[in-house]
Amino acid sequence: MIDTANTVRRNILVLGATGGTGRHIVAQALAQGHAVTALVRSPDKAKDLAGARLVTGDARDEAALRAAVIGQEAVVIALGTPASPFREVTLLSTATRALIAAMKAERVSRLVAISGIGAGDSRGHGGFLFDRLIFPLLLRHVYADKDRQEALVRNSGLDWTLVRPAILNDKPGRGTLRATDDLSGFNGGVISREDVARFVIGEVADPKWIGRSPLVFW
After folding, report:
1. Antiparallel, parallel or unpaired: β 178-180 and 74-77
2. Confidence (pTM)
3. % of the chain beyond a pLDDT of 70
4. Which residue from 104, 102, 153, 146 is spatially nearest to 126, judged by alpha carbons?
5. Which end of the chain offers a freer environment for a tag, N or C, measured as fewer CB atoms within 10 Å?
6. CATH number of 11-217
7. Cα(77)–Cα(139) distance, rounded to whole angstroms?
């Protein structure tokens, strides 16, 4: 059971709300009493996000983002992109660049962006299977864009946190996790989307990792 007695309520915009992790973020945020706005391209895919305010638009469209950002106290990027072995990926960096401009224009400073193990200086810490097979064969273009996204966030001047989940799964959350930005000796690890969402909402309500890139894992 979630104890909401002492939760600080926030107005939160979620990008990627219809994705696997995004749905958990929306559900948990609403359960804790936050006011959630979800920017979605297809309202039909968001019909089950009961309680969230839906704004239709493309996450790469700065005008749509500015409209959605108005009145928010924090923004969560939970955008995902499928494996792309052959084609360049630009969604994450393009959307993040547009969002940063929109947040600055509307004077919203708190940004929590979900990246992933293998981005930036966490490359090479995903375990043998991920580092030697999955990453180079399926995800190198995705992670090239995650690297661009992370650089944009770091240089944004916003109050940012980059959350790097270990290998994601859809198992029930444990309610506990570990977070570190000291990668020495770390190699591999897993975590559920539900627990990643719990960490993200915690960072919105009570920030502890501003200006840092915690790796979260079981």
Report:
1. unpaired
2. 0.95
3. 97
4. 146
5. N
6. 3.40.50.720
7. 19
